[in-house]
Design goal:
Length: about 350
């Protein structure tokens, strides 16, 4: 046995046997402390006063909605439409400063003759994407062993870690490319409540079919594959399936879990692979949105409640992830499919009334 294989075995043993005593309650304490510190220093901010008020309660609600629904196969978009509407964050009226002058996201120019006005809706839409960093942090903490394994694999110290990293990258690339090329068209033509309702219903029936398909194949030992054992073309297939989630209301988590079923992952492993693939996907979306509209969001809401929303999203996402893994082990996807149908009906009523 060569020295390389010996090192790989050593690193594998460390990942399997080491226990970092960082219990979830300590994470909650740290997050709560950071939130309290952020709120107590709010009055000392030296940045200009926000153009619109996002209350502490609003920040907490949006953080909860984002954190809970981001990794559950229920569509965070559908829930955020309801939350933004209830909180009154849907206004597309141009905001003004204290002097009564209009505020611009993009001032009138040769490229944008009419300009892009700064609105409450634009800031709120950016807010719900940027606070995804909290959900990312939750997954990093809960699945640090897998993340460390991929990091070690990057330096040729773990073959399993390298294969897992390869599969995560292959599952991420298709949606990254498609999202970069199509995001303007999606925002312009697909981002509507009607489109979200249709996607919720279609996704529910897809989940019911996938759950029936999985149960019919699990009896022959099909669902015993580990994410690191997926072939490159199967990981790429999950990535292509994830492109469906670019359609608002579909749910990135749902399509990656269903894709995992079809390539032989059991419900828990499909969910865990979905969490890992979500790391670069959510980070890329948050970075892009932050660069594009982050300054406008800060100008409207200020810093304090943006940080609070991310912290609440971290706590709620960690709880949601642990719940989903436990729930899928016992019940599968069917309950979430019925919930999506109920949510679609609620959105329909919300639109009418």
């Amino acid at each position: 046995m060569g020295p390389g294989a010996h090192k790989t075995r050593q690193h594998s043993a460390v990942l399997k046997t080491s226990r970092v005593h960082f219990p979830f309650r300590n994470l909650c304490r740290l997050v709560l402390l950071a939130a309290i510190l952020g709120l107590t220093t709010r009055g000392a901010e030296t940045t200009p006063a926000p153009a619109a008020e996002l209350g502490v309660g609003d920040a907490i609600v949006l953080g909860l909605v984002e954190g809970v629904t981001e990794f559950l196969p229920v569509s965070s978009t559908g829930h955020l439409i309801i939350a933004n509407g209830v909180l009154g964050l849907e206004s597309e009226k141009q905001l003004v400063n204290k002097a009564g002058q209009p505020l611009w996201h993009k001032p009138p120019s040769t490229k944008h003759p009419a300009g892009v006005p700064l609105t409450l809706k634009l800031a709120a839409d950016t807010y719900t994407v940027v606070i995804q960093v909290g959900a990312i942090g939750a997954v990093l903490l809960l699945y640090w062993r897998q993340v460390m394994s991929m990091f070690i694999g990057l330096f040729d110290r773990s073959s399993a870690g390298f294969r897992l990293l390869r599969n995560v990258v292959l599952a991420f690339l298709p949606v990254a490319i498609a999202g970069f090329l199509l995001h303007n068209l999606i925002d312009k033509y697909l981002f509507s409540t009607g489109a979200v309702i249709g996607a919720l219903v279609a996704g529910a029936f897809l989940m019911l079919w996938a759950e029936k398909w999985r149960r019919s194949h699990s009896v022959v030992g099909f669902s015993n594959v580990q994410p690191a054992e997926l072939t490159a073309h199967k990981a790429l297939g999950i990535g292509l399936a994830q492109c469906l989630a670019l359609y608002p209301g579909t749910s990135r988590s749902m399509v990656t879990i269903v894709g995992g079923f079809l390539v032989g992952l059991n419900p828990v492993k499909a969910a865990e692979f979905s969490f890992l693939v979500g790391l670069p996907t959510l980070a890329g979306a948050a970075l892009y949105k932050g660069v594009k509209s982050g300054p406008a969001m800060i100008e409207v809401f200020g810093w304090s409640n943006v940080l609070l929303g991310a912290l609440v999203a971290a706590i709620s996402a960690a709880i949601a992830v642990k719940f989903l893994v436990h729930f899928l082990t016992r019940h599968g996807l069917a309950v979430f499919a019925y919930y999506r149908l109920a949510l679609a009906f609620a959105l329909l009523l919300f639109t009418w009334f």
